Amino acid sequence: MPDPLFLAVAGTAVVVGAAVQSSVGLGLGLVAAPVISLLDASLMPVALLIATGVLPVFTLVAEWRHIDWRGLAWGVPARVPGSLIGVWVVATLDPAMLGAAVGAMVLVAVGLSLLPVRVRPTPGTLLAAGTVSGAMGTATSIGGPPIALLYQHEDGPRVRATLAGFFLAGITISLAMLAATGQADARQLASGAALLPCVVAGYLLGRPLRRLVDEGLLRTALLCTVAVSGTVLIVRSFL
């Protein structure tokens, strides 16, 4: 049974992150990952991957009609080589090194997205984003920004549903690879399972925010969330 203090602090972060992701499309990992890392870094990334794996299911049940299936067909397979890179990082390197580099790249990408040039979800960009997302998600549990940047100009339901599809497939791939290589233990799995009620609570709290986000605020909210995730990765690396 996880420590009560861990459940209280980490659970609060998970509720907040799940509420953000429920409305914007991503956010659970970026809010909860630094908190869990500071409380007990040995639980990362498996515990948070377990917790984040449930939220996409709720989103897909509600908005599956808006999924970009073509985008999933190109992006999801690319997560496999990316996840292999992430597994190698978890097994052999300090994930903070990758976190800092990825965080810097995310911030650069956010800056570029503010320019008049518009990057669309084409086969090439989806393959690249899927690979980077796989590496980020497996090593740091924050894998949403590369895909989110490609869909920043789409409407709210399409963004949330498509990201949910990416997350569900990607988390499954990451957990399977981490388990197969001995990087997931019973303590990590139990801690992640204990946080699942907090995910449900956050999802329910975030639902009323969807209408506000969908009324012209999605791109701003998405870019702010992605920028915060890049900053979190960098700060967490130094901590």
TrEMBL record:
**Cited PANTHER family:** MEMBRANE TRANSPORTER PROTEIN (PTHR30269:SF37), TRANSMEMBRANE PROTEIN YFCA (PTHR30269)
* Protein origin, superkingdom: Bacteria
What residue ranges are annotated as transmembrane? 43-64, 85-114, 126-151, 163-182, 188-205, 217-238
Name the source organism: Nocardiopsis endophytica
Pfam families with a match to the protein in the record: TauE
Q: Where in the cell is it found?
A: Cell membrane
* UniProt lineage: Bacteria, Bacillati, Actinomycetota, Actinomycetes, Streptosporangiales
Report what the protein is called. Probable membrane transporter protein
The family annotation for this protein states: Belongs to the 4-toluene sulfonate uptake permease (TSUP) (TC 2.A.102) family.
> Which membrane topology term applies here?
Multi-pass membrane protein
Name the InterPro entries for this protein.
TM_pro_TauE-like, TSUP
Keywords of this entry: Cell membrane, Membrane, Transmembrane, Transmembrane helix, Transport
